[in-house]
């Protein structure tokens, strides 16, 4: 039996869970169960597969948001994966899916950089992308109307640092060496659209890592009350 001194010493030595060393507004841990009350996901139970803190610094301001990668295993079906992105400590919650990922493509890169290819901006310089019939504009901006041509517009990607946690060795424990950091660039685009009769903000994010590998994520805002931790 441990002595009182050994018990107290063990408590003092107890380390902070790795999941709490990153921005984690939901206070979730790897393996926690989550339910999403939407038509697509209402019958599924998801588990937290990974947590990713994303930090962007502009001047003296730091912006943080968090991606929770979720996975569910329907009986007799293929795994279902989605990403829950929490901005501003829950003021904005976005449900994302990976649309595509691919190695470096110069033409695609040029299409994201307005200065290199004016065909991918509107007549007044606001960057945009098109996916099917949907046109997305840089987040926080909209098509500039005549008479506003001199307003400053956002053309360049953001630079961000990610802190990524997952149970990489599948031992059911999260160790310090399973926290990885890396830098990447990203472009953010948005549009307003209607889903199930409700107007929502719909997003299109493009990430590019240091090797030029692209990942495209798309998705819309969701009411935080539709997310339940089990």
How is this structure best described in words?
It is a single chain. By secondary structure, this protein is mainly beta. The chain has one domain (16-103, 130-145, 157-229). Helix content is 7%, strand content 46%. The chain contains two helices and twelve strands, in the order H-E-E-E-E-E-H-E-E-E-E-E-E-E. It has helices at residues 4-13, 106-112; strands spanning 33-36, 46-58, 61-72, 80-87, 92-102, 128-131, 134-138, 158-166, 179-195, 198-209, 214-221, 227-229. An eight-stranded antiparallel barrel has the order 2-3-4-5-11-10-9-8. Strand 6 (128-131) and strand 7 form a beta hairpin. The longest helix is centred in the N-terminal third of the chain and has 10 residues, at 4-13. It is globular and about 55 Å long.
SSE layout and pairings?
Blueprint (H helix, E strand, L loop, with lengths): L3 H10 L19 E4 L9 E13 L2 E12 L7 E8 L4 E11 L3 H7 L15 E4 L2 E5 L19 E9 L12 E17 L2 E12 L4 E8 L5 E3 L1
Antiparallel strand pairs: 1-2, 1-12, 2-3, 2-8, 3-4, 4-5, 5-11, 6-7, 7-9, 8-9, 9-10, 10-11
Write down the secondary-structure element order.
HEEEEEHEEEEEEE
Strand count: 12
Mean pLDDT: 83
Query: Which percent range describes the beta-strand content?
Result: over 45%
Features:
46% strand, 230 residues, single chain, mainly beta, 2 helices, eight-stranded antiparallel barrel
TL;DR?
By secondary structure, the chain is mainly beta. It has 2 helices and 12 strands; from the N terminus they run H-E-E-E-E-E-H-E-E-E-E-E-E-E. The chain has one domain (16-103, 130-145, 157-229).
